[in-house]
Amino acid sequence: MESVTPPVGPGEEQTIRERLAHLVRAGGLTQAKELWGAVFEGPLNLTGTDLSGAALREADLSGANLTNCNLNGANLSKAKLSDVDMAGATLERSILDHADMRAANLRGANLQGASMMHTYLGGADLTDANVADVKTQSAYQSWETVAP
After folding, report:
1. Which helix (H) or strand (E) holds 24?
2. Helix, strand, coil: what percent of the chain each, to 5?
3. Beta-carbon count within 10 A of 34 CB
4. pTM of the entire structure?
């Protein structure tokens, strides 16, 4: 199995995005689950990645492609998820409290039992999403939001 620590030469720095990409390729994603407050520069493509139980509190994943990702039980509270593509993703029992999900694509996503307290959903597309037992209080929607 490939090492999960990518080589970094003298004077070289490694961005969180590079480290995460390497961990995904090496199959060592369990070591990347603590990304509290991480900021990713440029579009991040993690299509189909298992991020179940990931600690992504306050992470900036704006514009990321998380299509068909497993985010069951992930903590995404206060995360920046505007323009993120989560079509077909599973987010069962995930925590999305105070998250910014403006214009997020949640088509066909499974949000069953997720907590979305004070989540901003302006312009989000929830077509065919499973929102059974979702906990909401003051979830902010705008007239552009497409609900199931």
Report:
1. helix 16-26
2. 10, 20, 70
3. 10
4. 0.73
